[in-house]
Amino acid sequence: MNEPSTRIVKVNGSGCRIWENGDGEPLVLLSGFGGYPNWTPFLGHLASKRRLIVPSLPGYPGADGHRLLDNQLDWVSATLDLLEAAEINNTDLIGLGPGAALAAEVAAMVHTHVRRLVLIGPMGLFDEGDPLGDIWALRDSEVPAMFSSQPEKFAEALSCPDNEDEVEWRILQTRAREAAARMLWPIGDTGLAKRLHRITAPTLLLWGDADRVVPPAYANRFADLITGPCETKTIDGSGHRVDFDAAEQTAKAILSFLH
Amino acid sequence: MKLCWFHLMPYTDLPDDFKDSHNSVWVDIDSRLFKPEKAHHMYNDFMDELEFAAESGFDGVCVNEHHQNGYGLMPSPNLIAATLARRTQDAAIIVMGNSLALYNPPLRVAEEFAMLDCISGGRLVAGFPVGTPMDTCYAYGMNPSQLRERYYEAHDLILKAWAEPEPFAWNGRYNKLRHVNPWPRPVQSPHPPIWIPGGGSVETWQWCAEQDYVYAYLSYFGYKAGAATMNGFWREMKNLGKDPNPFRAGFLQFVGVAENRDKALDLYREPAEYFYNRCLHVDARYANPPGYTSEATMRAKVKSQVLQAARRATDQSMITAPTFEEIVDKGYVIIGSPDEVAEQLREVAVDLNIGHLMLLLQFGNMGKELAIHNTALFAKQVAPQINGLFENEWPDEWWPQAMASSTRAEPRPVFQTTLQ
Fold first, then answer.
1. Domain limits at A115?
2. Structural domain total, chain A
3. ipTM score of complex
4. Most-buried pick from A209, A235, B34, B200 (CB within 10 A)?
């Protein structure tokens, strides 16, 4: 697996990491819960076919400045700053979880930025009758099974690597959770439902069929509200983090949609 | 030393099997356990106890704020404080306090505290807690990443509202107000003393020092567990060049007094075990929302092995079920004869350098009769042995400055006249 190149751009004066890896047509990806402390097999699969650009949202690993963002407009504005620094221009855009909620905002707001859109287990909506998983009220031991269908393997991936400081590793993860909470607390409804109709880009809704964070039935709500052509695909046996649970299959589904 | 009588107002009728058959006393406590007709009596008993404490000569009576909580029945401590302002004479009314970020706009706190200060003739202590994660983030949906920013902004707004003689505009990060001009205003000038109930974060200590506020450590785990925190607080005060005036500090301690130690063991076993086993049965899921604890405090805490061990122990519930013997051994509750209790409390006050001792003399499912017994014994036989502590050496600059009693209103006596 090739290492990505790294550069740091400023968003509201705070540094945000942008990774790039691979050749071909650009493809931009906004991470989900926890962000990416390290390059992963899923990113490798995408970078093997496309020039993959992975900007870190404020507060996620590699980026700071989430505490400057007070409301959804601030988050959308910071995301636009970040994507424009990554030179997004009629580019395919992927988002996961909270990153998908922001990718959808960008696609709704600036049609010229996004050519095709992939939303993987997107946050942003909340239905009282079919609530999201209560991700903020978990014991440490419950976290892996909430996000992954392979909790033991996922717990291993979350644990501190040998070459990292244990305290700082824990703080890095807490900071990423805080960044997500800052946008999504308490129930994850960002008001996105009022703006989804503005999305005209062809959209793939991708879900783990065992997603405990965003129930797979939410795909229908997104599909109903989005104006552009929309297709839904589920990955069997995967939890919310399909990029971890089924890295290759998820990458294939994305690349096949973006063929 | 000031002796302050503190009431949490615990629901006294949680079932025997509460810990085994219910998830948590806080946030998602089973609403079917709440019997309003029983709560009618609990509230009235609790207010009787507070009034009795004030009459018995305690320097102050304390109430606090909790939400969706089976051991704290005061979502609004200000309601109770209002009745205390009418039905007590000289005791300080210590509201510990209002979680500033939960009031929208926080000006509400400036107004209600001013009302309480006016009604009581200047006897109010204004407590400004950040609030627990359970109360603020889980029960009230406050964003943990914004809680402290909102808290500090609310504090600045309230202080300015009390100080500023002219209406002013407030363009805060979270509060936008064109005409700030609270009416009424507090009796105490420039404002009631401000006390900060806090945990053990270095930032809170520094902030208390910077603002010259009282830091009150409201732990349920007594003087032995509290020593590390209070020592840390005083070390920090020294570093910041503050004098070691014990009145800078408040500390909470459970106490059970009886004729002798054996009687105390007998009398206080049930309410103590009720409190530590049922009332503190809090699901750890609600203890640590991301962003609630600052990264600096996290670094300090993660590095402390004691706290690492505590975290391991708390994965299921916040504490494990202790027996009364353990509760007493660990110093959660101080029990004994009046002389024994006085001796221990003197030691606590001196060792931890505490000028404002906050005493829980009703706890758990303790009924009114025992609470009154405990309070009366304390007032008559314990208080006189310790209340002179520190008073000649240090000024208490954080005690309410009430109007002279001769100039204060006399509330109409209750139930003493009949309409013709």
1. 5-257
2. 1
3. 0.95
4. A235
